[in-house]
Amino acid sequence: MLRVGLTGGIGAGKSTVASRLAEHGALLIDADTIARDVVEPGTPGLAAIVAEFGDGVLAEDGSLDRPAMAERVFNDDTARSRLNGIVHPLVGERTAELLATAADDAIVVHDVPLLVENNLAPSYHLVLIVDAPADVRVRRLAESRDMPERDARARIAAQAEERQRRAAADVWLDNSGTPDVVRSEVDALWTERLVPFEANVRLRRPAPWGRTLVEHDPVWQEQARRVLDRIRLVAGERAVRADHVGATAVVDLPARDVLDLQLTVRSAQDVDALAPALTDAGFPLADAVSPVPDAVLHGGADPGRPVSLRVLVDGSPAARRALLLRDWLRADVDARAEYARIKREHADVPGIADTATGAASAAETVGDVRYAEAKRMWFDDVTAKADRWAAETGWTP
Q1: Quick one: residue 119, left, alpha or beta (phi over 0 = left, psi -120 to 50 = alpha)?
Q2: Which one of 33, 35, 320, 371 is at 20 to 30 Å from 21 when CA atoms are compared?
């Protein structure tokens, strides 16, 4: 099962994206709809709200007077927390019931208005954000809900800022144009990313990644941060630290477009115990033997963001070395230029192959071995220099 989080600001047109995903076959779980269902007349949820806030929040027909309730909590953080304390657990229970009915090969899209505000992004395999400029959203709210401009702008201001949404977004869908434009983007997303992502998660296989060296991409840092947030959530107290390492973690270095990540845990038992949970979270065990001593290698199942994750026990010399060489390269311009030259000279294998599982042609395999050996030899030669830098600067992992 693939779990996809969908969110966007009020008036951004999230429902257009949700409907298109449902047309493709996604199981849509709408948090707003569930939130309404759990406080219908006769439910324990509505009874709890009345007990907390009084009969003044009821309409004449005995249902929840939503405008009155919204006015009561909109500018009162304490009242809003009391309301959320009643509704959110009920929504969570109902969501779990719906998830339990999903097929093994389901792509579940969870439409959550406050996904960013409640820091829920790491709990999904992928997060989709729908956005549009504020003026477009205000106009839509006036047309679809007859909402006054002042109220619309107040609602928009009360939600997450664009900066916060972008930080959480694995996929950013600009819905400022006509509905056909964003629907076309969703069609491509479904075919090219969501369907293969689900299959990879279900079949416990890493996605293939490109073997061609590319110039440094600034987005690698943000992508790594989001992936590491998911890994930390899965690892919980077993994790000592989780880091972005390798060439994609160093500005100005060319690299293959795969994020090298490193998770250090407390014991060898933790390495084994985390394997099933990491697999379910989209990081299945890789068939290839890890080039790092004493590390267990996982790959990323997302075809849109290839990942190589090594899991090691805290205190491993290999874990320290990866962090040391990363930070030394970040600090030493000449070393960084020399390493870039080595990489460019030996990364002469074009095309795409399944590096995570070792599926490659004979020529590609030979090229990979030559590339890896050239890097290994260079690092062996410069590790002493990096150690001296660490001693001189007081560096620690």
Answers
A1: left
A2: 35
Using CA atoms, how far apart are residues 251 and 244, in angstroms rounded to an integer?
12
- For residues 21 and 28, give the distance between their C-alpha atoms in angstroms, rounded to a whole number: 8
What pLDDT does 155 receive? 86
3-state secondary structure of 54: coil
pTM above 0.70, yes or no: yes
Kindly state whether residues 246 and 150 are assigned to the same domain.
no
Domain holding 380, by residue range, is 209-393
* Number of domains, the chain: 2
Phi, psi of 234 (to 5 degrees): -70, -45
Asked whether residue 180 falls in the same domain as residue 41, the answer is: yes
Count Cβ neighbours within 10 Å for each residue of 273-289 and write b for 16 or more, e otherwise.
Answer: ebbeebbebbbbbbebe
Same domain, 160 and 215: no
Crossing angle of helices 14-24 and 179-189, rounded to 10°: 40
What are 188's two structure tokens? 């491509």
Quick count: other Cβ atoms within 10 Å of Cβ 328?
A: 22
- 5-19, 20-34, 67-81, 129-143: the lowest-pLDDT one: 67-81
Question: Residue 256 pairs with which residues in a beta bridge?
Answer: 213
* Residue owning tokens 């439910």: 43
Do 179 and 220 sit in the same domain of this protein?
A: no
What value, to the nearest 5°, has the Cα angle with vertex 120 and ends 118 and 123?
165
Q: Compute the half-sphere exposure of residue 131: CA atoms within 13 Å on the CB side of its CA.
A: 20
Q: Report how far residue 220's alpha carbon sits from residue 305's, in angstroms, rounded to the nearest whole number.
A: 10
Q: Are 173 and 109 in contact (CB under 8 A)?
A: no
Give ∠ CA 82-87-92 in degrees, rounded to 5: 130
Cα Rg, the chain, nearest whole Å:
25
Q: Where is the domain boundary, 202, 221, 252? A: 202
Pair (249, 358) in one structural domain: yes
Quote the CA–CA distance of 20 and 130 in Å, as a whole number: 13
Residues 286 and 324 in one domain: yes
Q: Say how far residue 391 (Cα) sits from the centre of its chain.
A: 36
